[in-house]
Here is the input.
Amino acid sequence: MTVSSPLPAARMSGRGLIETLEIDTRMLAMIGALAAIWVVFDVITGGLFLTPRNLWNLAVQTSSVAAMATGMVLVIVARHIDLSVGSLLGLTGMVMAVLQSRFFGIDGDLGWVLSVLAGFVLAGAIGGIQGWWIAYRGVPAFIVTLAGLLIYRGLAWWMTSGQTVAPLNPNFELIGGGLDGSLGAFWSWALGVAAILALCARAVFARRRRHAYGFPVRPLWAEAAVLAAQIVPVVAFVMVMNAYPQPRTNVPMGIPVPVLIVIAVMLVMTFVATRTRFGRYVFAIGGNPEAAELSGINVRRITVWIFVVMGLLVAVGAAIATARLKAGLNATGELDELRVIAAAVIGGTSLAGGVGTIFGAVLGALTMQSLQSGMVLLGLPSPMQNVVIGLVLVLAVWLDQSYRRRRL
Amino acid sequence: MTALAAGTAEGRRADQTPLVEMRNIAIHFGGVRAVDDVSIDLMPGEVVALLGHNGAGKSTLIKILSGAYRADMGEIYVNGEKAEIRSTRDAKRYGIETIYQTLALAENIDAAGNLFLGRELMTGWGTLDDQRMAAETRKVMQRLNPNFRNLKTPVRSLSGGQRQSVAIARAIYFNARILIMDEPTAALGPAETRMVAELIQQLKAEGIGIFLISHDIHDVYDLADRCAVMKNGKLVGVVRTREVSKDDILGMIILGKNPITGTVVY
Ligand SMILES: Nc1ncnc2c1ncn2[C@@H]1O[C@H](COP(=O)(O)OP(=O)(O)OP(=O)(O)O)[C@@H](O)[C@H]1O
Ligand SMILES: [Mg+2]
Here is the structure.
């Protein structure tokens, strides 16, 4: 049997435009919602929201939760949950702080690098142990990680009897952003240009592959439109980050280090979720665990690895959060488990399993932080902010469910 | 045991080694003896129908062969040699492919992803080669269901028949030597059912052995060389299809009565 000739390009009729562009309408709706939130806050705060300064801060504040949310996507897609991420962040951050300030010393870079590495090993190992209890001992993830929530917070306190650990290495603190923790204008632009080149290369490469196997390709104009829709936000992002000047020196800040880390995490996790066997198996397990097992997938081993990845991403979050606070605090990351789960769910991850995207979760984290930041600008007391966030969570999931039901 | 001995002796050409032989297989779930001392074999190029009422133990028996369950008792021989089948991967190594009654598809993944699940094609960089998998899927689907176009939509949004085609495609793509089809046409329309019947003839001609499971004799009477009938986990008997009437086989299914030996399974 030979490969048939390329099918005719998609017809242009009715929903033709959206189909030709192959746009994910759900993602589009999310971006629209985020844009609406930004505009509304900007109007009611009288132009305080859409300023480079606020957006720069917004990006930094989102980082830690966004990094962890990318891992929570895999956890939830595989029909599990992780309630321990906030506490594990507290413990891991505390370990990083204690190691560099009391053991390795805060002078020189070796100390903080080792402390961060130790944090990764610890969080990854703890994730693996949780995964083992879930996969090989059959204790539900809800229970295992609920126990973890109590245990790790307790251990974080126990390490210093609740004392705050400071100061930390100044270079470590760059991970959290702060006044010096940005790339500056030149490197921000360099990165932006690199991103644009990568996007173009990807488009060309994907088109060639499709063509090689005789699958329909988008018309060139559509390809260009999609590419432009990716490039414009990159340019806008770099411009906004560069438009925020350092308060005293007036030098442009540029892309903050924690945001850079999150972008890297997002790229790596998207690759893992969509281009590797591991990612494919995670989704298969979420879609039909029995089918996954019958296909010869080692469901238990994959489950352990999912929680190892989650642990490593908690370490990323811990480094960012601790560096941003410039101190190890026993309470760091309190309630983060809920923010992370909410970010993933608002970003379209289905609690029924099998469905979710990394980019969606990052957008979800940004949406939540935007709400929070807007309410701070409005002077809403923080307990009332929680009321709003709670309502938004229910609303978002309800909208998502009705969207899916109508579509499928 | 007598019923089984008669069935095998008459059913098999003595000069050949069976492709598969399952001997004295038993498995229980809690108190339920789902399969109770069943022996059955399959020759190259032969179609053996496995019949019986709902709950007779047909699916359970073949899941032992496909590696989904481990038997409590009994042995499996492939080409005359004892086979250790501990997992579905082991079974696939012996060339045993299965179309499960439940289809065993991941609903959220597209046809190509399901077809290659557990055996993905990779690019030179060690990443999933989705385009090549889709192209291969298109090829194999052409043999089964030429109207199949939805290569890239999640299986969830396919029709029952299309999903069944995906499950069948998955079983035949990897050059099975032993094919297990658990009610493969349950969701298919008449045209697709005919295509599956043709496919079975074609695979048979290639020397592939097929276990064809059904609870309806009319579905399989024209295709099967032998019919094995189960009732309440036990084997009623194995008969050559052309040596008995449909009514004889119905009697086996309903009454558990072996038309040759006269023994009855309750
Ligand atoms: N995983 C399981 N756990 C417990 N009991 C099971 C399991 N699988 C099958 N059984 C029981 O074993 C018996 C045989 O079931 P099986 O699915 O093999 O029947 P079947 O002949 O395939 O029926 P059908 O025609 O409905 O598909 C039934 O009584 C069923 O309840
Ligand atoms: Mg069955």
